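Good morning C.,

I know you're traveling, so I'll keep this short. The sequence:
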Amino acid sequence: MSTVKKTAQKRRPPRRTLTGPVVQPIPGESLTSWVGELAHQQDFEMRPLLRELHLDRLGGLAGAETRLSDPVVRRMEKLTGIDAERLSRRSR
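The tokens, ready to paste straight into the viewer:
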């Protein structure tokens, strides 16, 4: 590994994770709205939060609004503590 790569890796801040309790979605609230509120509550920038929740793999929030995959919902449940059933309803 080059010295430049090692130096860049040393400067990278540690990966953040969500801290509980997280803001609960309001019944009928869109996934986009809830994730925005979650980012605000957790003091996360949107891009790192989407990456943490694996929503970036669905094309960001626009893609997630129409199709949440089971693995992504399970990851979101694990990180937020919010029931998978409730999270699945966010995208409908």
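Safe travels,
E.
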